[in-house]
Amino acid sequence: MMLDTITVRQMPFEFPDEIDPVFVAGDHRASFAIIAGSLLLPHLEPYLIRSMKAAARHVTDPELLDGLERFCAQEGQHYRMHQKFNATIRRAGFPGLERLEQELSDDYHRFSRTRSLRFNLAYAEGFEALTMNAVKHLMEPDGFGPELSPFLEMVEWHFVEELEHRTVAFDVYDHVCGGYLYRLAVGTWAQWHFTSWMRRVTRYMLQVRPQRGRSGERGEGAPAGSMPVLPSVRSLFPGLLRIYLPSYTPHDVEISPGIQSLADKYSAMATRTS
Ligand SMILES: [Fe+2]
Ligand SMILES: [Fe+2]
Q: Is the torsion defined by CA of 8, 10, 11, 17 positive or negative?
């Protein structure tokens, strides 16, 4: 099967000190929605790691335990890299982000402290299922294309690893707690929770830097490595609906061969792999 190993890569990405936060040329909303995703991750991914580590002592299958540890190691690399990128967004001047991030961070710490392991694992799988299927839609057949900016290359590396560890959260939930209806209920709530936070961030950023002209119009002098077209949210739906079915399992998801080539490319680019 394509992409059946979980490789932990330490990546050498560097970002310029200053970036234009409108990096999808001419499209403030799309740019800010992507930034909202990047701002989410240094709060959400550590929460996923905390949940997985709490589950580890209940995992009796050595192969799954190895997957769990690799999942945590990959997510640890992801959020640190997003933190590094997010520092450039802070310098671009959106002071209200601090309060929004604090609120999200408080939520995730509260969930770890007060909610059951079952809730936290179902949340994790709700996030992983949605992102893995969205990532497939955005990336297949073979990624974002040539000549990417360091940010988009970083996102592509992250997305490849999301596909690599696609089965872990599902299997850990199933192994430790299980139950379709509970996973469905909490997973759907989780998807509402983090996407509504991202929408609030996007709205706030649009207030600070409003869109002038038509959204999605590609401006003059679009920088090399900008993402030319983003699929509409609606076009994601058919692929996403399957995650709500009782028969859904990430083990059945087919990954296109082009993604394996990207995984090999990022392994070669990594400063360290394990
Ligand atoms: Fe990640
Ligand atoms: Fe993940």
A: positive
158 CA distance to ligand 1 middle (Å):
6
Q: pLDDT digit string (tens) for 166-180?
A: 999 999 999 999 999
Q: What is the CATH number of the domain that holds 268?
A: 1.20.910
User: What's the total number of domains in the chain?
Assistant: 1
Residue 52 CA to ligand 1 centre (angstroms): 13
What is the distance in A from the centroid of ligand 2 to the CA of 136?
A: 13
Q: Which ligand is nearest to the CA of 124?
A: 2
126 neighbors 232 (Cβ within 8 angstroms):
no
Residue 115 CA to ligand 1 center (angstroms) comes to: 22
CA–CA separation, 167 and 253 (whole Å) = 10
Contact 76, 49 (CB under 8 A): yes
Which residues constitute the domain of residue 105? 21-210+233-273
Question: Sorting pLDDT into bands at 50, 70 and 90, what band is 221?
Answer: very low
